[in-house]
Design brief:
By secondary structure, the chain is an alpha/beta fold. It is about 40% helix and about 25% strand. The structure holds zinc ion (ZN).
């Protein structure tokens, strides 16, 4: 069984344990994380697990380990349908092997021109440069993308047009 944003006890329970509740209150996990975890756990015996479920304007993005993307989607998209049904929203699954790969997948078809580590007053962040001419290809707003990338990678990021 894979790991989930919530603990094993909470997968089987209707309420959150104090630990998970605290992480929920702190915004580390969101209601989509909780709902998608319980759904995937109950609809698939293999229970592939995932890293984060992040709501965007048009769909919920489920970020999974690279090698479990197919299992999360399920045979003929079975799990994906269950997830979409319980989240009442379209669901997309993306694999996350490493930071750059995930960012490139999230921003595609727009191309990433480069990554830079930048030191700011609030600490270090990764600046992601996107070609200005391709901004219209982005599927989410800048705000949503920054939120998704930060949530999925635990890295502070800044998107800029270049
Ligand atoms: Zn818990």
């Amino acid at each position: 069984m894979g790991s989930y944003p919530i603990c094993v006890k909470c997968l089987k329970s209707k309420v959150l344990c104090p630990d998970c509740q605290q992480r929920y209150d702190q915004g580390i996990i969101c209601c989509e994380d909780v709902c998608a975890s319980r759904t995937l756990f109950s609809c698939d015996q293999q229970s592939p697990g995932f890293i984060h479920a992040v709501p965007t304007r048009d769909y919920v993005l489920v970020i999974a380990q690279e090698d479990s993307v197919g299992d999360v989607i399920g045979e003929s998209g079975r799990n994906l349908k269950s997830l979409a049904c319980s989240l009442n929203c379209d669901v997309k699954v993306v694999g996350c092997e490493d930071f750059k790969k995930l960012v490139i997948a999230l921003l595609a078809p727009a191309r990433v021109k480069g990554f830079n580590r930048v030191l700011t007053g609030e600490g270090e962040l990764t600046r992601i440069r996107i070609a200005s001419s391709e901004a219209k290809l982005l599927r989410m707003s800048f705000d949503d993308l920054q939120k998704v990338i930060s949530a999925a990678t635990d890295e502070a990021v800044e998107l800029v047009l270049d």
